[in-house]
Amino acid sequence: MSRALLLLARAAAAAAFLAPIALLLSASFRENGEMYRHAAELGWRTFLPAAPTLDAYARVLELPLFARQLLNTVALGGFMATATTLTSLFAAYALARLPMRGRGGVFGLMLFTLFVPVDVVLPPLFFVVQDLGLIDDFSGLALPFVFSPIGVYLLRQAIQEVPRELDQACMLDGGGAWEVLRTAIVPNVRGALIACWLMHFVFVWEWYLWPLTAMRRDDGQLAQVAIAGLIDPLRSTDYALVFAAAVLAILPAFATFALLQRFLTASHATTGGK
Amino acid sequence: MSAIEHIGGRGAAAPARRLPAALRGWGPAALFLAPALILLGLFKLWPIAAAVDASTGVFSPGGVRVGDAGLANYADVLADERFRQGLWLSLFAALAKVPVQVALGLGAALVLQANSRASALARAAMVSPMFLGLPVTTFLFAYLFDLNVGVVNAVLAGMGLPRVAWLTDGTAAQLLVVGLSVWRDVGLTMLVFLAGLAAIPPQTAQAARLDGAGEWCVLRTITLPLLARSFQFAVVLGTLASFQMLAPVLMLTRGGPTGATDLASFQIYEAAFVYFDLGRASAMSLVLLLGLMAVIALEIRWLTVRWTYE
């Protein structure tokens, strides 16, 4: 009895999340007119294409700026992931290993910024970036979010787990702070570094509000923001086109995640010194 | 330890001695911290300082400061019926989202914690919305709940129920925006509880079972109290996320129908980027930010961790 209930709960959880995503995929292979024709009555054609077609994908590729905008998203993802991981690594190393006054305060200040959502400070952030002359510019899009409290937290945690004996061994060989980071820390936090990189890469696909306000050139816009412009919820939206574009837009994030996720397993060297 | 202190002094030993005590050890650390701290100062702290400054000013429609308003912007904003309504709506959104999301996330974690293939699949399904990204999730909901072509309405009609105009009916639109937010974030809440469950040593529960405690009793008296830290974390994360519903509101409802999704964050956006009223927008930003901080501080207080397993 309770076994059956448990199974049912699992199936319900999986269905509630996979079904909408399956519908997204299905809709991208449909023809828009056909979708609207079969929406009135409930049947299998409400959910599945009567005649699967790549027509919507072809139309996406004909959108003049789509390829450019998708490239913008991917480039921003690569830049954000790399820049965030590097700045977080340096900050986390200092916070975890270099003794200094006020270390706790600095870390607390960094975590505090987690509680300031971009929705709430969007106007002031916009005007600061405008004062810096970076509106409508790739760097204006990217720089405000390079510093990531989550990245610092994650890497600080990982560095604290590296045995200090490794640092000391490196220092006995005459290494300074930079050599310790390079030879003792980085090789032992590789898993966390990749996790941090991957997380901030995929995170760019979440972006909507900031590019919407800070990037007003169409050729500099991100794919997902441009696609949102195709939706008019109160009129007949061309959903086949929207979803074909959405599928193409998230493909790079999926592919990158699939390629890199096998490196996510924690490094075993971290327990070596204990 | 002494060797570690040593690298602090390496190369910077002589000038470090002349620095005041408050700056001890900052030589090499400052270099490593500089990129993060500069970006933090420029893009996290400066906007808040700029908002404090702008909130006391009067601005021309072109965005030029033409005079001082003192605290008039705050008085204005707090007296504004629409903004007060918007603050309540933001609070209600949190009150609607957080308990549902925490309950569903906890339930999912308890049901799916087993190390079986079926559980792993269901867990992966629940976190999959995170990979779609917020904009694509919003497109998906726009389609599912579309009045004419949406699958939800097709199913309702198939069951003989009336179609619902999700975007033009007030309550339905609120449900849609909050529901989207829960659907998207519940996987993360589940992960928080799964991590919490994994960290509880099994001995306590086993001892209770030996004493004849049933599963329900173990859950109520041992597992849930020991998950206090996860509760705190899940509630704070959920509250933060509930203050980030602006993107779906902008894409789907634009504050409507008749003010049903007229969240405070939407009004801030409108004041700044539609009416270019910088003073007002900044005052509203700061009021909402203080409100959010107050809610989170209260939550952390209420959910203090009383029992630990350490």
Provide the descriptors you would attach to this structure in a database record.
heterodimer, A: 274 residues, mainly alpha, MetI-like fold, 2 domains, disordered C terminus, B: 310 residues, 16 helices, 2 strands, 73% helix
What is the global morphology of chain B?
globular
Largest interface: A-B, 100 and 97 residues
Distance between the termini of chain B: 26 Å
Helices of chain A, by number, come to 15
SSE class of chain A: mainly alpha
Number of domains of chain B: 2
What is the CATH class name of the largest domain in chain A? Mainly Alpha
At a glance:
The complex is a heterodimer of chains A (274) and B (310). By secondary structure, chain A is an all-alpha fold.
What does this structure look like?
The complex is a heterodimer of chains A (274) and B (310). Chain A has 274 residues and is mainly α. Chain A folds into 2 domains: 2-53, no CATH class; 65-271, MetI-like fold (Orthogonal Bundle). Helix content of chain A is 68%, strand content 0%. The radius of gyration of chain A is 24 Å and the shape is globular. Chain B is an all-alpha fold. Chain B has 2 domains: 2-42, no CATH class; 79-302, MetI-like (MetI-like fold, Orthogonal Bundle). Chain B has 16 helices and 2 strands. Chain B has helices at 2-9, 13-18, 26-54, 72-79, 81-112, 117-127, 129-132, 134-144, 151-158, 170-199, 203-210, 215-226, 228-242, 246-253, 264-273, 278-302; strands spanning 57-59, 65-68. In chain B, helix 3 crosses helix 16 (278-302), helix 10 (170-199) packs antiparallel against helix 13 (228-242) and helix 13 (228-242) packs antiparallel against helix 16 (278-302). The chains are: A mainly alpha (274), B mainly alpha (310). At the A-B interface, helix 1, helix 5, helix 6, helix 7 and helix 10 of A face helix 1, helix 3, helix 5, helix 6 and helix 7 of B.
